[in-house]
Amino acid sequence: MRAMKPLFEVISNLEGFEFVAFWLGLFIALMMTGFFIDMLMQRQGFGPFLNAIYALLGAFIGIYVRYNYFLRAPWLGYEPFVTLVLIFGSIALLLLLLAFIRNRFWR
Q: For residue range 19-51, what is the model confidence (pLDDT) as tens digits?
C-alpha cells in the first residue's frame, strides 16, 4: 500500500480541531452508509451499525485487492474506475455473502 503513504502521512499529522473534524466526519459518513445499506437491504440487512462496519471492511478489502493484484496494466483502462468498481463490488459481495450465510444457516 505504498500508494496510500501520502494520505496516511497527512492523516497522522492532523492535530486539534482538524483531527476531531476528520474522525467525526468519517464516523458520520460511515453511519450514513450503514443506514443507506440498511434501507436497501431491509430485512436481509444486519442493522445500521453492523452494515457500516461491513461496508468499511469491504472497502478495505477492495483497496487491498486493487493495490496488490490490479497494478497498472494496459487492458484496465481508466484507473479510478477500476478502483471504484473494486471498492463497491467488494462491499456488495461481502454484504450479499454475509446475508446469504446468515439466512441459510442461522434461521
A: 999 999 999 999 999 999 999 988 888 889 999
